[in-house]
């Protein structure tokens, strides 16, 4: 499914989110606060939009995704073989978040944006992220969530149920994929439940911040040093 939508993925997300996805990406990059020379794993990186934002800091980015179609599109746009030479501090890797092909303690930061709910075993993925993060390293998860205000939550649900499918049919290369998107958002746990999963995986200093009235939440955590 993700292979099929790779070419128009970023444009479709921009339209369906009413441009909010750009603001969410900026907020995630600021929360990570990447530094030159840091090693950052960007999981569910898709076509590389979030990786590019992180790479501007001078950090070394591994952009990993389960979809070979997404990885191919990212390579075409930003890889070393891309027109104009690409971005040298981004490396694209096909990877399963529940069985990462990286050594223990390999990264200073691990981040995943709007992809954890698509993993078949998110709790196992959280444990894998912990394994590949260096002691004292950071986790940042951007994910759709549940607006806490009832009135706004009802408006958001109306948009997802009635408006989003119609717009997706106009702008997406695979409208059925966005039916799945709607279902996955609806079935995903709320902010407190995800925070509990993160703690249970072994992360500390777990906290979250709502964006866009709770449509999205940024979850932060740290790997213990001992």
TrEMBL record:
Query: What protein family does this chain belong to?
Result: Belongs to the class I-like SAM-binding methyltransferase superfamily. MenG/UbiE family.
Enumerate the GO terms in the molecular function aspect.
demethylmenaquinone methyltransferase activity
> Which organism is this entry from?
Microbacterium radiodurans
Q: Could you tell me the gene encoding this protein?
A: menG
On whether Methyltransferase is a keyword of this UniProt record, the answer is: yes
Task: Indicate yes or no for the key word Chaperone.
Answer: no
Which terms are listed as keywords in the entry?
Menaquinone biosynthesis, Methyltransferase, S-adenosyl-L-methionine, Transferase
The EC category is transferase
Catalytic function, reaction form: a 2-demethylmenaquinol + S-adenosyl-L-methionine = a menaquinol + S-adenosyl-L-homocysteine + H(+)
- Provide the binding site for S-adenosyl-L-methionine: 47, 65, 96-97, 113
In its UniProt entry, what is this protein called? Demethylmenaquinone methyltransferase
Q: Which pathway? A: Quinol/quinone metabolism; menaquinone biosynthesis; menaquinol from 1,4-dihydroxy-2-naphthoate: step 2/2
Xref: CDD domains? AdoMet_MTases
What's a Pfam family this protein contains? Answer: Ubie_methyltran
The cross-references to HAMAP family, in alphabetical order and at most eight, read:
MenG_UbiE_methyltr
Write down the EC number: 2.1.1.163
Reported function: Methyltransferase required for the conversion of demethylmenaquinol (DMKH2) to menaquinol (MKH2).
GO BP of this protein: menaquinone biosynthetic process; methylation
């Amino acid at each position: 499914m993700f292979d099929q939508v790779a070419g128009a993925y970023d444009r479709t997300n921009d339209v369906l989110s009413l441009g909010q996805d750009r603001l969410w990406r900026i907020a995630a990059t600021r929360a990570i606060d990447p530094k030159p020379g840091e090693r950052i794993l960007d999981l569910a990186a898709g076509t590389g939009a979030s990786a590019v934002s992180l790479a501007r800091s001078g950090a070394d980015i591994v952009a990993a995704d389960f979809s070979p179609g997404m990885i191919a599109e990212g390579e075409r746009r930003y890889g070393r073989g891309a027109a104009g030479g690409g971005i040298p501090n981004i490396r694209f890797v096909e990877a399963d978040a529940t069985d990462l092909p990286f050594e223990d303690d390999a990264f200073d930061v691990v981040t995943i944006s709007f992809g954890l709910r698509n993993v078949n075993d998110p709790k196992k993925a959280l444990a894998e992220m912990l394994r590949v993060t260096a002691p004292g390293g950071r986790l940042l998860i951007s994910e759709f969530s549940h607006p806490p205000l009832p009135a706004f939550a009802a408006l958001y649900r109306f948009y997802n149920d009635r408006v989003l499918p119609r717009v997706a049919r106009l702008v997406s290369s695979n409208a059925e994929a966005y039916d799945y998107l709607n279902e996955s958002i609806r079935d995903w746990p709320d902010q407190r439940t995800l925070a509990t999963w993160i703690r249970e995986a072994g992360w500390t200093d777990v906290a979250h911040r709502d964006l866009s009235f709770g449509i999205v939440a940024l979850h932060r955590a740290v790997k213990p040093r001992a």
